[in-house]
Automatic annotation (TrEMBL):
InterPro entries: MobA_MobL. Belongs to the MobA/MobL family. Keywords: Conjugation. This is MobA/MobL protein domain-containing protein. Residues 23-209 form the MobA/MobL protein domain.
């Protein structure tokens, strides 16, 4: 019969340092507990002192040296019944384990072709049990062939020439292939061949039933490897550039001048002249500006008084006051009223011109604050007839207590920035008057 069934057999030695992670992987515990492809876990041939497989493998990790376990990965052909798969698990302990402690786990995930990928993972100890009852410490002691009861359990390490070791491994492959063919023949399915494809005369590479998730992880690892290789290449280039720079530094000035081209030398000298001219021009401009800003006290005082007059005249315009109220009260362009939170003692804090424009719909007090609404247009008309000090004090109240709208971060920021608006405007006027650049009210309040 033509052998077309998939056969995968893999055996590998594990040391004690990597054993704990391997046990977690095949039993889907620890960091691998979220994977849902585990079917069953079986253990056998455990010594008397080991009450569980985990206790045995923890002792192996602590006490074993060299080869701590043989790891098997065995593919199970598709279309086998659950009873046949259970018989294969039983025969593994009878044939491949050969009286050695083992843990066998059956996994079933999705293959690359999105079909069932059923396979076995097994860990087998290299120590073969005998009739002697030993403690844990004696179990891992050195084997004494002449006095077996006083030594440890015999350890099979498969030492010897390479051809001999390959012959032993191929014998294990044949033994497992015979167990598979027994079940495949009973089910009427194609048989497997333990030989390699080249020995069978088949010219192709082996095909793995790889999990799609594993393919994604492999691509990620490959991408990270490419990134690391790129970083190494860039580091090599940078190291080469630094080495070239060191060579150039070690050159004498005479050697460096001999490598310069006449055109490059002329461009370098021209750039140096241009930079010197630019520095000189900046210095002259700075001196000219400083001289133009110098003036006697009378001129400065006159400019300051003119700017103050323009400031007072603009404060008498209702439309300008309305714009300031909207801006510092964080009101929208079309809003007719402004919400304002006033302290409970109104008369002691709020000017009369603001109290006359406030409408309080709810007389109840919240947190010692009265919530009212100001008619913006009416307040602007009243302020245009008030004194300059009253205008400034009213705008300060609006800045400090006008908290609407709260969700608008930009509005809240504007309110915070407007707390000292009056003093900032006065400083701006004085600065412009001192520099002779006062042009009236081309500024925010």
């Amino acid at each position: 019969m033509k052998t077309t069934a998939h056969f995968h057999f893999r055996i590998k030695n594990f040391g004690p340092s990597a054993l704990s992670d391997r046990v977690d992987y095949i039993t889907r515990t620890g960091v691998y507990r979220d994977r849902d492809d585990l079917v069953v876990v079986e253990s056998g041939n455990l010594p008397a002192w080991a009450t569980s497989a985990r206790m045995f493998w923890d002792a192996v990790e602590r006490r074993e040296t060299g080869n701590a376990a043989d790891s098997f990965i065995l593919a199970v052909p598709r279309n086998l019944s659950p009873e046949a798969v259970a018989r294969l698990r039983e025969r593994f302990g009878q044939t491949l384990a050969q009286g050695r402690p083992y843990t066998l786990a059956e996994h079933c995930d999705v293959a690359r072709d999105y079909e069932e990928n059923r396979h076995f993972h097994a860990l087998v100890s290299p120590r073969t049990l005998d009739s002697v009852n030993r403690s844990e410490a004696q179990f891992f002691a050195r084997y004494r062939p002449k006095h077996p009861r006083s030594g440890g359990v015999r350890k099979n390490t498969r030492k010897g020439p390479k051809k001999e070791r390959e012959k032993i491994v191929f014998g294990i492959r044949e033994q497992w292939a015979s167990e598979l063919n027994r079940e495949l023949e009973a089910a009427g399915l194609p048989l497997v061949d333990p030989r390699s494809l080249s020995d069978q005369g088949i010219d192709r590479k082996p095909i793995r039933r790889q999990n799609p998730e594993a393919l994604v992880r492999a691509r990620e690892i490959q991408g990270r490897a490419r990134g690391a290789a790129f970083k190494l290449r860039m580091a090599a280039k940078q190291a080469a550039a630094r080495a070239d720079a060191m060579v150039m530094i070690r050159e004498t000035p005479l050697q460096a001048r001999t490598r310069w081209d006449d055109r490059d030398e002329f461009a370098r000298m021209l750039d140096k002249v241009r930079r010197k001219k630019a520095v000189e021009l900046a210095r002259q401009t700075k001196e000219r500006v400083a001289q133009s800003t110098r003036g006697d006290d009378a001129v400065v005082l006159q400019a300051r008084e003119r700017a103050q007059a323009l400031f007072d005249a603009r404060l008498r315009r209702p439309e300008e006051l309305e714009r300031l109220i909207r801006h510092y009260g964080c009101a929208s362009a079309g809003a007719a009223t402004l919400r304002i939170n006033m302290p409970q003692r109104i008369g002691a804090v709020i000017p009369e011109v603001l109290m006359g424009s406030v409408h309080i719909p709810d007389p109840r007090i919240y947190n010692h604050v009265v919530v009212g609404h100001v008619a913006i247009e009416s307040l602007a008309r009243n302020l245009s007839r008030a004194s300059r000090g009253t205008i400034e004090e009213t705008l300060k109240i609006i800045v400090h207590h006008g908290l609407e709208p709260v969700p608008d971060r930009r509005a809240v920021k504007n309110a915070q920035q407007g707390r000292d608006a009056v003093s900032r405007a006065q400083d701006e006027i004085e600065r412009q008057a001192a520099t002779g650049k006062a042009r009236g009210w081309n500024m925010d309040f």
